[in-house]
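=== How it folds ===
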Amino acid sequence: MLAWEQAQLDAAVVDLFGFHALQLGLPELDGLRSNRMPHRWLALQQAQPLPDDLVQDPARTVALHCDFDALPFDTNSLDLVVLPHALELACDPHQTLREVDRVLRPEGRVVILGLNPTSLWALRQRLGRLRGRLPGHKGEQGLFLPSSGEFIGYWRLRDWLRLLSFEVEGAHFGCYRPPGLSERWMQRHAWMEGAGERWWPVLGAVYFLVAVKRVRGMRLVGLLPQARKVAKTAAVAMHNNKEIS
């Protein structure tokens, strides 16, 4: 899954130009490595070890610790924000998305990765939670994915973006084979990747989308015909019974 997500991020951000880019969370994925913006940040909500490539080259991406729903950036200051599963793990995903909208400049882009609640992976997660509630099982030990976080559906996320005046430019689904913990299991079901893209494309375990921030304003294009007529027939100012030209 990480390999598929990294490939999607590399292809999406390589041709995005600007000066300031930000990634929220998940340092295991370097969502900005193929981007050429001079100022790049990796925001983390808590102290955690960084990947070796960031430690060896800290000038390439600056790490900072902050709350995702209160980003330390000015309004309309960033050109790109990458959210690899950040909304699912956020305390308030609505506020996090509103904060991303605030810091993005007009025509800036947001790249989002999320787990699909209508997939085999999500089904396995729900079955694991039900099994954990049965007598003799230890809580959520049988879960395949992390127990924290909330699955946010693709169409639900599109509605959130539409309310914030974002326009989705592109989206993809991936990882169609059922989850497994052995390489043999994964290779046995490798055929499902091609079949899933063709026959059930919206049932992939992961979705990926790119949206652009649109700011629609008013523009004065001239007086209306009625306003022009009123302006021509309006009385001129008088001073001492003489017209003032």
Observations:
- Confidence is low (pLDDT under 50) at residues 233-239, 241-245.
- The domain at 2-243 is CATH 3.40.50.150 (Rossmann fold).
- The chain has one domain: 2-243.
- Strands lie at 20-24, 39-44, 62-65, 78-84, 104-115, 166-174, 206-213, 238-239, 242-243.
